[in-house]
Amino acid sequence: MLSERRYSVLQSVIREYVQSVHPVGSRTLVRYYMPRLSAATVRNELMWLEDKGYVISPHTSAGRIPTNVGYRTFVNSLLLHPEFIKHRVRPLADFGPQPALPLISAIKAAGNLHDKARMVGELLAFFAQYTNSLLVLWLPQISATVYHRGLPLLLRQPEFTNVAAAVPLMQLLENQGDLLDILKDIATSGGLHVRIGAENNDAQLYQFSLVAASFDASSMAANTVFSPAPGAVRGENNGVVALFGPTRMDYQKAISAICTIADDAEG
After folding, report:
1. Same domain flag for 111 and 141
2. Which of 56, 208, 257, 263 lies 20 to 30 A from 104 at CA?
3. What are the CB-based long-range contacts (under 8 Å, 24+) for 183-191?
């Protein structure tokens, strides 16, 4: 269990590293996040966090970056925080101006599968831009296709300057059987899922984090003349919206985006 001060240091390291993509030193933390503490005090706390596995020093510099354990500690605290729980589902307008605010309502109302698919693409493209991640939507009662947007945005992340690092995710999109296994597991177990690095079942995805939620997709499938996707059974109405990104992601933003989409799609 981290003390309040140590958690604050860890949280500050994560927030700074997400923004800067550079190892974070004590002087940066004191200057921008913890002005009431001395650099020596922050250095001591960073050394403790490193010793316990929450952060690492990638080279001989004094800067640290979060480990998967550090990210998991941050996410768990986030998900238990009353204010975040209260506000993690937000009005779509809070995500900034977009020409498609009524998109989810329009998707529900559309009777033409082509129109639904087009609007789903627009919805995913907006949230992919907002999170700089790959967005995926699975609606098995409508189509066998797994809709996705945002791969080029993901490839612009510093972690994937060497495109080979993103090959496992591209293979996942191409071999949709493996992707469907992940989505079916989420649909079956329900709720919100956050899998960080090695928490993913597939070792090839250890460089990525997944944020996903299942929802009752009945209203999304309404008004459409369709044949259920292979493996879909009438009455099994869950859909899944998911986000793939580097482990260095803004988890608060990602979770809010996924929960908002799932809530609006179900409502």
Report:
1. yes
2. 208
3. 183/136, 183/138, 183/146, 183/212, 183/240, 183/242, 184/231, 186/212, 186/213, 186/214, 186/240, 186/242, 187/138, 187/140, 187/214, 187/238, 187/239, 187/240, 188/238, 189/214, 190/214, 190/238
If phi > 0 it is left, if psi is from -120 to 50 it is alpha, else beta; for residue 96 that is left
In this structure, is the dihedral angle defined by the CA atoms of residues 200, 130, 110 and 264, taken in order, positive or negative?
positive
Q: Are residues 34 and 99 in the same domain?
A: no
pLDDT category at 249 given cuts 50, 70, 90 is: very high
Place of tokens 């809010």: 256
pTM for the structure as a whole: 0.92
pLDDT band, residue 235 (cuts 50/70/90): very low
Q: Are residues 212 and 100 part of one domain?
A: yes
Strands (E) located in 157-261: 192-196, 208-216, 238-246
Structural domain includes residue 151: yes
Instruction: Please indicate whether residue 101 or residue 49 has the higher confidence score (pLDDT).
Output: 49
For the cut 70, the answer to whether the pLDDT of residue 212 exceeds it is yes
Which helix (H) or strand (E) segment holds residue 65: the answer is strand 65-66
